[in-house]
Specification:
18% of the residues lie in helices and 37% in strands. The protein is an alpha+beta fold. It has a single domain, classed as Hotdog Thioesterase (Thiol Ester Dehydrase, Chain A, Roll), CATH 3.10.129.10. The protein has a six-stranded antiparallel β-sheet.
Length: 142
C-alpha cells in the first residue's frame, strides 16, 4: 500500500460547504470528490455557469478547476496546513478537446514537492474519458 502524501485530509463536507461559500468555487459548482494517497479529484458541471457563449466549456472554468486542485494539494501537504499559506505562481494549460454537456473531472498529482515550490499536473476529462485539458501549476509555499 502506498503511503499518503497528505499531512491532513480535510473533511469533504467542509470543503464542499462553508469552505467554498461565496466564492468562485461555489459559482462554478466545483465539488471535491475524493482524496487518494497521491491525488485529489474534483468535478465541475458543464452548464450555464461554466460555458462560453458558443456552447462549450470555458477554458477559464477548466483553469479554475486546475488552479484550485493544485493549490489544495499544496495546502494539504504542508506540515501544518492551518498555519502555512500557498499561492499559485504559474499556470500552463492546454485545451485538448471540447465539452458541451455533462460533468468534467479533474485529477491532480504531484510532479515535484520541494520545500518552497510545488509543481502539480492536473488532467481534466469528460465523462466518456476523453481528455479536455492538461495543466501544470507551480505553487509557492509562503
Amino acid at each position: 500500500m502506498k503511503k499518503s502524501i497528505w499531512t491532513t485530509i480535510p473533511d469533504l463536507e467542509y470543503l464542499n460547504g462553508s469552505f467554498r461559500e461565496n466564492t468562485m468555487l461555489e459559482a462554478l459548482g466545483l465539488e471535491i470528490v475524493e482524496f487518494t494517497d497521491d491525488s485529489i479529484i474534483a468535478t465541475i458541471p458543464v452548464d450555464k455557469n461554466t460555458m462560453q457563449p458558443f456552447g462549450l466549456l470555458h477554458g477559464g472554468a477548466t483553469a479554475t478547476l486546475a488552479e484550485t486542485l493544485g493549490s489544495l494539494g499544496s495546502q494539504f501537504v504542508l506540515p501544518d496546513p492551518e498555519k502555512g499559506r500557498v499561492v499559485g505562481i504559474a499556470l500552463n494549460i492546454n485545451h485538448l478537446n471540447s465539452a458541451k454537456s455533462g460533468v468534467v473531472t479533474g485529477v491532480v498529482t504531484p510532479v515535484k514537492l520541494g520545500g518552497r515550490l510545488h509543481v502539480w499536473q492536473i488532467d481534466i476529462t469528460r465523462e466518456d474519458g476523453k481528455p479536455v485539458s492538461r495543466a501544470r501549476l507551480t505553487v509557492m509555499v509562503l
